[in-house]
Design goal:
heterodimer; A: mainly beta; about 35% strand; globular; B: Ubiquitin-like (UB roll); 5-stranded mixed sheet; 3 helices; 5 strands
Chain lengths: ~400, ~100
């Protein structure tokens, strides 16, 4: 019996939506971590009971939460829960919310500067975890993409986090700049066919690839064209919003850039535009059909100035060939007076048959489709603004 | 014992009541109270003070015996009312809204 678990991060807590494989009736649990911003919640592919959550606050900083029972209970993996007694040895255990850039001589890189909004150089400062990407085969290993842009990894279930400093220390670092949301590393794609290959994307620096498990990195932005930077074809500086790939064909990458939907068939070495007949090629999320590596989904947004759907119509667009021909998917979605946004981490697919697709909006709706996007239902309508949506297919 | 009042979100994070008590040996200061608080509730490490710099987070304020001592030196000795437990040391989330 297959079950579907949708993990939703919002501005005011996390929610878990569950259904059986028919995906018609849903239960809604939450809020978890009420009142905190939950940028991302994601389950381990190796153990569906293991879930990591990024909890943050402009007042109280970054917290990492972990569940080992599918979201029923949570704990901070680096903290001693028995607060009435001091741990043996007198000092408490380390805490899981400690993200410190690695500047050590052995494994680190010097703490340098990056471009600031006014063109000056600004020191790297940790703000929050945007994205958590659990390892494909080890529940205790998870990657974290953070603001200011850097990649961290835990190998002890989130107790401690260590920076893979080669990315932040790339020679192009001083040319990276924050997007409107901050200089965030928001996308991490792990290659299931090559454990040493990792893709990352940073706003606004671009896409990067490591072929040695995260030690060294190279920009992979050839073919991107961005009119909003002085050199539209520069090696870095592109505001990449999201990258995705199908597990069976990870050398083919799909990208939603600030403007333009892009495709690479050579692991990011080169990109070509596939925006085609979309009503707008601005947007944030992009997803691949779980059973068809050539079918992709985007949610067009009118522009970077307006951040709502064209014509007030909320439409998911599907390309069956991963190419320039797109079809609007509207059944069950509001087709008038709709001015919500769908953020970069807020769309995901399940692995049931037919493929299910889910996305959340800044208006607090989570929509789901159990038929590859042909029709949609609002699973829940009035959550806080949705920041992220991930899906687990439980077998 | 020193009484410490926590803001709502730190109460939920530490699974504790609004007011907790901690023991401070030696001079009672902002720093010694926060050290004792983080020893007892390690999940609060990094939430009131940043991990590396140990500086107060910008939107956290400290009140003691009716005074805002947020910008005082963390090593200043606090009033006797705090040290004796007659009054609580208050950790407050800065007001924001709209």
């Amino acid at each position: 019996m297959t079950a579907i678990r949708v993990l939703v991060g919002t501005r005011k807590g996390a929610f878990i939506l569950t259904s059986d494989a028919r995906r018609n009736k849903w239960s809604v649990d939450g809020p978890y971590f009420a009142g905190w911003e939950i940028y991302h919640v994601k389950g381990s592919p190796a153990d569906p009971n293991r879930i990591y959550a990024s909890q943050s606050s402009s007042w109280f900083g970054q917290i990492i939460q972990r569940s080992d029972d599918g979201g029923k209970t949570w704990s901070q993996p680096g903290s001693d829960d028995k607060v009435d007694e001091m741990p043996q040895g007198g000092m408490p255990q380390g805490v899981s919310n400690k993200f410190v850039y690695d500047t050590s001589e052995e494994t680190g890189k010097p703490l340098t500067t990056h471009q600031w909004y006014d063109g000056t150089q600004h020191p790297w400062e940790f703000a929050r975890v945007w994205h958590l990407e659990p390892s494909l085969d080890d529940p205790d290993t998870c990657y974290a993409g953070v603001e200011d842009a850097a990649l961290f990894r835990t190998t002890d279930g989130g107790v401690t986090w260590h920076e893979l400093a080669g990315l932040r220390g790339h020679t192009s670092g001083p040319n990276w700049m924050p997007g409107a949301g901050g200089m965030c590393l928001h996308t991490i794609v792990l290659d299931p066919t090559n454990r040493d290959r990792i893709f990352c994307a940073i706003s606004a620096a671009g896409a990067f690839r490591s072929d040695d498990g995260g030690k060294t990195w190279a920009p992979i932005n050839q073919g991107l064209h961005s009119e909003y930077i002085p050199d539209p074809t520069a090696e870095v500086g592109h505001c990449v919003h999201r990258i995705t790939a199908h597990p069976s064909n990870p050398s083919t990458l799909f990208m939603q850039k600030h403007w333009d939907v892009m495709r690479s068939d050579d692991g990011g070495d080169s990109w070509r535009e596939i925006s085609g007949d979309l009503p707008s090629d601005f947007g944030f999320p992009i997803a691949v059909h779980s059973h068809d590596p050539e079918t992709i989904y985007v949610v067009p947004i009118l522009s970077d100035s307006l951040h709502y759907p064209p014509e007030g119509k909320l439409r998911v667009y599907r390309s069956r060939g991963g190419s320039e021909e797109w079809e609007a998917l509207t059944k069950g979605l509001p087709q008038e007076h709709c001015y919500v946004n769908v953020l970069r981490d807020a769309m995901a697919v399940d692995e049931a048959d037919p493929c299910g697709i889910y996305f959340g909006t800044t208006g607090g709706q989570v929509y789901g489709s159990n038929d590859e996007g042909d029709s949609w239902q609002a699973i829940v309508r009035d959550l806080p603004a949705v920041l992220s949506v991930e899906v687990q297919t439980i077998r | 014992m020193i009484r410490v009042v926590l803001p709502f979100h730190l109460q939920t994070l530490a699974s504790c009541d609004r007011e907790v008590t901690v023991r401070v040996d030696g001079t009672v200061t902002q720093r010694s109270i926060l050290d004792a608080l983080e020893d007892r509730y390690p999940m609060l490490r990094g939430t009131v003070r940043e991990h590396v710099t140990m500086k107060r987070r910008p939107r956290v304020r400290f009140f003691a015996d009716g005074k805002d001592i947020t910008h005082d030196s963390p090593d200043d000795e606090l009033p006797a009312a705090i040290a004796t437990g007659n009054k609580p040391f208050m950790i407050v989330g800065a007001v924001a809204g709209g």
